[in-house]
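Q: Given only this backbone (141 positions), what sequence would you predict?
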């Protein structure tokens, strides 16, 4: 009976974490400095996942433009910029889209997954997922 209860709790916990939504506002943390950079809103549009910068926390960069970006994002304000585009759900992960790094203007492949209901794993990479970097974003209530 004890094993059954433990198994049931594990299954319920797994379902709860996996059923949580990645949608909402997240505080981005610089993986190099550990400092909060911005608030990003993750949203769904036409069955795909996107994210845009809704607040810049560093006052020195509040009005910065994406000068190194290419195409339609070139010289757009970082505030309001869509930085994640076109992710699709694949099991417990969202992938097959891109993430823009406004600091260097480069686009990377992207994967998102919930670590917990309030912690989002954001992986940007080139080619294979092994060649990239990971940030952890924290839900804003």
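A: Predicted residues:
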């Amino acid at each position: 009976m004890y094993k059954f209860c433990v198994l049931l709790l594990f299954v319920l916990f797994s379902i709860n974490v996996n059923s949580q939504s990645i949608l909402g506002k997240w505080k981005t943390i610089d993986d190099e400095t550990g400092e909060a950079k911005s608030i990003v809103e993750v949203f769904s549009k036409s069955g795909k996942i996107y994210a845009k910068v809704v607040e810049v926390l560093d006052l020195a960069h509040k009005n910065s433009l994406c000068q190194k970006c290419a195409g339609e994002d070139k010289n757009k304000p970082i505030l309001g910029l869509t930085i994640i585009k076109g992710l699709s759900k694949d099991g417990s992960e969202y992938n097959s889209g891109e993430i823009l790094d406004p600091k260097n203007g480069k686009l990377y492949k992207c994967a998102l997954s919930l670590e917990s209901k309030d912690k989002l794993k954001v992986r940007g990479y080139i080619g294979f997922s092994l060649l990239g970097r990971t940030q952890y974003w924290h839900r804003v209530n």
